[in-house]
Amino acid sequence: MPDTKDSYEEYMSFFEEIYKTMDENYYKPVSKEAFDRFIEVFNTKIYGELRETGKSIDYIRWRSAAKMIDYLKDEEDIFSAFYPPKPAKEYEQTALGRRQDLGIEGEFVGNMFKVSHVEPRSDSYAQGLRPLDDIVKIDGKDVKDLTEDEVKELLVPMYESTVTLGYYPAGTQDLKYIDVLSKEYFKQMVFPITTPVEGIYGLEVRRFNRKTAEDMFRYIKYFKAQGPMKGLIIDLRGNPGGPPLAAREISSFFLPPGDDFAYFQKKNQPKAMLDVPEIPKEFHYDGPMVILINNKSGSASELFSGILQSKGRAVLMGENSAGQVMLKSMFHFDDDSMVLLITARGHHPDGQVFSFGGLIPNRAVNEEETDIIEYATLYLVYVNKEGLWDREKMTVVNKE
Fold first, then answer.
1. Which among 18, 47, 58, 399 is most buried, taking Cβ atoms within 10 Å?
2. What distance in Å separates the CA atoms of residue 256 and residue 273, rounded to the nearest whole number?
């Protein structure tokens, strides 16, 4: 479709809508003069360059909108961005920890597709599929006649479509068939870590979402059932974060209910203080605790880590975190594109803002030179042995 005067007016209208959204919601003021300067650059340079590419009207609109956000946002801001429809959907699913598929992972072993993981909230799990089961048929097609990529593609069908799977439950030759619905679900993000010492447990949290606290509850309940917990390691290395409310919910396992947790304050609005939720006392853990972080630990994972560190509730080990404790909000438009904006910075209850420089660990540990899980485990053994953990105050009384 050729570019016309009408399409040019559509560009202007779209840019005005985005500017209004940013002006009302961005965490810092966005001047009208800066927007007018962008429009001038668009008219004198960007528009002509993009038209010469022969790309579609949609491409010109979306590419220009991305340039506009980069032009208007603060120089410290590396997160606010414009997303065309497809990347917008992908970002939202990733950021919120949601998926729309069958929830099956695995690989070829011989002539069968051996399942390595089934998402607990997927329909596949509800229908009885489990890790180590062998899938041999997908919608009547023999797996042995397909490539691994073809199998994986068939396991990610259109939303709300049904796929018939034929499989052998692990260790049997009893062929079963199930009809599995491709639906939206929250991915499991909490996984157990094996430590070298009995009574010291570990959990890897890969991302925060609305069900992370539910996953945490399941493991804490299991650990407590095994006997006294002598220590807990929470591995947040590489965890890019997620919704701040998820960090708040997880804090309930480790902090007193009702305590101020943290707050965010949007432009021209009162601060929104988050408090620690209440959970049954038998699932609360007040013993020694280490949190592992690195330069890819960001957002909600830093919020959780930083608050527990500042309250003396946990010792942080590893590298400085990413410095991303801020509230990021998604704003969608009629064409299904989206603008992601920082709408507030994160603050400690006393008003101290989380630094863009990230969290500084209590103990810096080089992962390339040290087995950090073993290091954290030995630290917790030492804390228990020397009686350095004050359970009443929930703090380390001697970090050395």
1. 18
2. 16
CA-closest candidate to residue 71, choices 29, 34, 24:
34
Instruction: Report, as an integer, the average pLDDT of 318-331.
Output: 92
Place of tokens 């103990």: 363
State whether residue 42 is helix, strand or coil. Answer: helix
pLDDT tens digit sequence for 135-188: 999 999 999 999 989 999 999 998 889 999 999 999 999 999 999 999 888 889
| pTM of the predicted model as reported, rounded to 2 decimal places | 0.80
Under 8 Å between Cβ of 190 and 204: yes
**DSSP notation for 293-308:** E-TT--THHHHHHHHH
- Region of residue 73 (left: phi > 0; alpha: psi -120 to 50; beta: else): beta
Residue 111: count of CB within 10 angstroms of its CB: 11
Question: Which helix (H) or strand (E) segment is 316 a member of?
Answer: strand 315-318
Determine the 3-state secondary structure of 343 from DSSP: strand
What tens digit of pLDDT does each residue of 330-379 get? Answer: 999 999 999 999 999 899 999 999 988 899 999 999 988 899 999 999 99
Residue 391 to residues 230, 258, 261, 287, Cα–Cα distance (Å): 12, 19, 20, 6
- Rounded CA Rg of the chain: 25
**209, 207, 308, 304: which is closest to 248 by C-alpha?**
304
Q: Give the pair of three-digit tokens for residue 108.
A: 């070829």
The residues pairing with 291 across neighbouring beta strands, listed in sequence order, are: 234, 316
Between the alpha carbon of residue 220 and those of residues 208, 226, 231, 302, the distances in Å are 17, 10, 12, 21
The Cα–Cα gap between 131 and 143 comes to 17
CA distance linking residue 292 with residue 249, whole number of Å: 19
Task: At 252, list the tokens.
Answer: 């309930």
Return the half-sphere exposure (C-beta side, CA atoms, 13 A cut-off) of residue 322: 20
